[in-house]
Write a structure and sequence with these properties.
This protein is mainly beta. It contains one helix and ten strands, in the order αββββββββββ.
Length: 128
């Protein structure tokens, strides 16, 4: 998680917190990954596997990301990265991809996952 987030009323903004606002926290995943609450703050989730890999978005009941959360996913592996819901009947994932509910990222492609409602996410970027 980037330094500086989250802040509470009465916190004093330090230089480290302020400078941390422009940095991404980078995590590399070599296996399937389900988003966690710490992914909401300027986090770059790198997916790196030679074969297919999955990035899953949990239901709001499991992980209550605030509406407006943006998670950035970058696939550097040779395998396709599929972005989808853990529970597709509850969480809606929409994209302009060939399969709107499960867009894929080829190698060196990235996408932003944007939460717009309780269990609704849009995936925008270099998706197929």
């Amino acid at each position: 998680m980037a330094t500086g987030f989250p802040a509470a009323t009465g916190d004093v903004l330090s230089a480290a917190m302020y400078n941390g606002l422009v940095n991404f926290t980078i995590t590399t995943n070599t296996g399937d990954y389900t988003a966690v609450l710490n992914d909401q703050y300027q986090s770059l989730e790198i997916m790196n596997k030679a074969t297919a890999i999955a990035f899953k978005i949990p239901t709001n009941a499991s992980v209550a990301f605030p509406i407006g959360t943006v998670i950035t996913v970058l696939n550097i592996g040779a395998g396709l990265c599929t972005i989808s819901a853990v529970t597709s009947g509850t969480t809606t994932v929409l994209s302009a991809g060939a399969v709107a509910a499960a867009p894929t990222l080829a190698q060196y492609k990235s996408a932003a996952l944007i939460k717009t409602a309780t269990d609704a996410w849009y995936v925008v970027g270099a998706i197929a």
